[in-house]
Amino acid sequence: MLTIRNYVKAKSLEEAYELNQMKTNRILGGMMWLRMMHLNVGTAIDLCDLGLNTIEETDDEIILGAMVTLRQLELSACLNTYTHGAVADAVRDIVGVQFRNTATLGGSIFGRYGFSDVLTVFLALDTEVELFKAGRVPLAEFAAMKKDRDLLVRLIVKKKPLQAAYLSMRGSRTDFPILTCGVSRIDGVYRASIGARPGPAVVVEDETGLLAGEITEESAAAFGEYVAETIRTGTNLRGSAAYRKHLTKVLTARGVLEAAAQ
Fold first, then answer.
1. How high does pLDDT run on average in the chain?
2. pLDDT band at residue 36 under the 50/70/90 scheme
3. HSE, side-chain direction, 13 A CA sphere, residue 237
4. What residue ranges define each of the domains in the chain, with the CATH number in brackets?
5. In angstroms, rounded to a whole number, what is the distance separating the alpha carbons of residues 222 and 237?
6. HSE (CB half, 13 Å, CA atoms) of 100?
7. DSSP assignment letter at 99
């Protein structure tokens, strides 16, 4: 059971940050996972009045507030035009529309959940997080950091020439993924992000130039093999390490071919 003693709507990021330094206090996101935990929360800190629920586009960036919902990501014209629909593909099977109307981007990213489609797709892009104290940090670096009491304020996607695709394997639609896979080509270099390993998503770039020439089924399969050998997979109730390694090969190769065809 989740027990909350005090509830505060923060009037500023400074106030939210100061309140969040108490270990018994918690930032409220969409509450979709937090509400299922057994926690005694001293003060629940709501960011809903801080204007962090917007998606803004500039010539160089797409700026996403931490309180943007997954449904907003799914329906965002600028975001999905830029990513060739990869972001919409990543979130469309997350439980259901009612859930996505409430679950937030900030909660999904800050949690670094092993099953996160959201973390996987944004790792495939050139993305930074904006933290209240630490400032801008590359998302891949942030994903590997230990959790602390800083605030995630925004996610910034840099607009570079992009080809992208997103795939996942699930036992059934709306279920947790067995494996997630984002593939992109940025500045001429392919990368793959693999999540639900079952650990948090990690990124592998084509450092050996397997995809430097013409993209064929053979070169895509070779990159899939390289990614599968580079990352570590594990076993849980949803699948074995060997099955996840096989899925990594297959989904990565498919993602390369889909991205290359754009």
1. 95
2. low
3. 3
4. 2-46 (no CATH), 55-158 (3.30.465.10), 162-260 (3.30.390.50)
5. 29
6. 18
7. H
The two tokens of residue 181 are 């896979």
Residues 6 or more apart in contact with residue 135 via CB below 8 angstroms: none
Residue with tokens 């930032």: 27
pLDDT for 79 beyond 70 = yes
The closest alpha carbon to 222, from 261, 189, 195, 257, belongs to: 257
pLDDT tens profile 119-137? 999 999 999 999 999 999 9
Residue type present at position 77 = A
**What are the angstrom distances between the C-alpha of 252 and each of 84, 88, 216, 240?**
17, 18, 13, 18
The model's pLDDT over 208-260, given as tens digits with 9 standing for 90+, comes to: 999 999 999 999 999 999 999 999 999 999 999 999 999 999 999 999 999 99
